[in-house]
Design goal:
heterodimer, A: Sodium/glucose cotransporter, 6-stranded antiparallel β-sheet, 21 helices, globular, B: two-stranded antiparallel sheet
Chain lengths: 637, 97
Amino acid sequence: MAFAIFAAFVAFVLFLSFYFSRQTQSASGFFAAGGQIHWAVNGVSFAGDYLSAASFLGICGMIAVAGYDGFLYSIGYLAGWIVALFVVAEPMKRLGKFTFTDALDSTFNSPGIQLAAGISTLIVSIFYLIPQMVGAGVLVTPLLGLPHAVGVIMVGTIVIIIVATAGMKSTTYVQFLKGALLLIFSTILVIAVCQRGLTTNPDHGGKKPYYDYRKIPAAQQNGTIKPAAPGFTFAAQQAHTTPQGELVVDFVKLEEADRFTWWKVERKDETIELVETASVTVRGDGSRFVNGIENSDELQVGSLSQIAGKSGDVKTGPVGAFKFLSLLSDKDTIVTRWKKAAVFSDGDHMVTLFASTETPGNKIMRPGLQFKVEGTILQRLDFVSLMLALFCGTAALPHILIRYYTVPSPACARKSTIVAIATIGFFYILTLYMGLGAMANGVVNPFSDNMSAPLLARSFNTYLFAIISAIAFATVLGTVSGLIIAASGAVAHDLLDRFYDLKLNERQKVIIGKAAAFTVGLIAIILGIVFQGMNVSYLVGWAFAVAASANLPAIIMLLFWKRTTASGIIASITVGIIVAVGLILLSPDMFERYGLTRSQAPFQLNQPGIISIPLSFITLIIVSLFTKKKNVKVAAI
Amino acid sequence: MFHQPAAKGKPDNAIGYKSKLGIFMFIIYAVIYAGFVVVNVARPTLMEKHFIFGLNIAVVYGFGLIVFALILALIYNHLCTMREKHPAQNGAKGGHK
């Protein structure tokens, strides 16, 4: 069923692309849909473009595991549209033609700006493509039973076809369709969540039964924790030594009918209890076991053990939208969350463990579980840096900026941005319900939270799961198409036609645009496979930081500071990109990915925006002051 | 020849007004957004206090930021459209700076 709906959607999208391909023989048609899209359609397409895998899969997933902290992304992403509407929308439309480089270069005609802005567009687009492609791989595994890499290749191929056949026109209608479907079915899912209400029993009798993690008593004998329940035998244990030299056992491996599982040791007063963890073991020969069963799907977790002080078998029945949030934010509501507890080697086995932890509702519904807002100064700065990047990043994203050229006038650009704010804002409110719904309904995959929203749909019925998954797939298609068009425009229009001045005719520009789309699509496929497993919203946070650092200072200063020079813009873009990308590569998260320890990272913030954005502004001001324009010509804002 | 605006529109005599209005509204929103970030960092526990309809400050402030963005956007569009339609009556001067 899921496959049929998915296949029907893809077939329709491809039909649209071939249908519009006859209308896109010119460069204007290919890169800007002829500038004739209606503002209302463009507004919903903005939503289709912007509500990427990060918004739908990443935010819902992060809320499902970290509560309110995931919703902070929604707030930041939406707030960024204020910058787009009040500062950027109309001037961008007035000054540019196909790409934001046109607008930056409108008063200078500088090859340096064309080169810097073109490269910046390419880098930001590729940074943004990574999470979309990761999201594609994440979706395909449960939907079609295919490996991550196959999903990534499939999306890459379809998107290349969409873009290469009809460019911006087909991309616009794919995004319009996807944006509308996403809103409609997310609303249906949220209504279903509220109708179900909250319950302490996470098994809803769906296609995939809920796995009830077990607890058994244990006893310590000569430094070894042994199970005190029939059917289990001790196999191994993981321990650490305290600074006082005491050996403390953290996890125990037990054998039960030839099946090996890992258990967390919990000590209460004088008693010891073993609590089953969610574990993935990858053996030396590459075989993979989930809780002791080879090639099994990951088990789903997340539930409520107490609702507003009531425990046992509690069911609220249908609740209103406010009541749903009110109950979950009650300090006497207890949520069983699952966190990564340990990664270690056991002989030639690599073991990853997730263990349950109980968190009261008041902590779920305020910041602090993901972002360490009560931590060190650096941790707080990291949070501020992220929120700054989200606020500044939207109006600097190339694939968003090019959509201003698809409407006929600046007023239409403004109106389409308002439609975008309405639709995107509404969707972001829904994300809180979908994420919390997943958290409370036992559908979170602890090894990859990105699938929380589709798995929540599966807990209702297979049809809803199939539709939501197909829409999620469309989400990736829509955003990736927009990014590839932006990157293609940067190569064909900014770099080859303008910077290298190849004097291409219309047909040649379209051909080069398509070739560029093909190349960028291939790069996106490779990166999507390499970055498997990272939260897509987190990755998008980096893309926003790079965009905000590289592009926004140049746009803002060009519009509002009369002394801005071409050299200032070039320097600002260059410094913004180098510093933002450099700091990301030197961050603790990346060091962990390199296989090093976090403390070895020379830059201890994960989010570069708080350094790179101001630095880009300062660079532009200083360089502009030292390179005064001979003929001052202020952009018409 | 390839970097002119995509579509040549009618002369817009309200550009200066719209620009100033946009900056003004942007500052209002930016201050409220900054307040949200500061409270989250400085007093995160304050965000768990229940405020209205059983919702805590974190949810009300978060939803509020989203809804307020739309309200500001609609006001902005209304004022801009009025000025575009009746630039002379509102005393608009010259379009392009």
